[in-house]
Design brief:
52 residues; globular
């Protein structure tokens, strides 16, 4: 899978599961990341409060 297609797939996955609790969201991204298992992965996720 090309790098751009992989990033697009990851963005679509993040959009689909964005309403999950943060810990579950990170697990979902890590569990569905398109990889052959040989790459290291780090995920930094945070939620910002809605504007007032």
């Amino acid at each position: 899978m090309g790098e751009r297609r992989g990033l697009d797939a990851l963005a679509a996955l993040a959009t689909t599961y964005a309403d999950q609790p943060l810990q579950d969201f990170v697990r979902t991204l890590a569990g569905h990341y398109p990889s052959d298992g040989h790459d290291d992965m780090a995920i930094l996720a945070l939620r910002t409060p809605p504007p007032p």
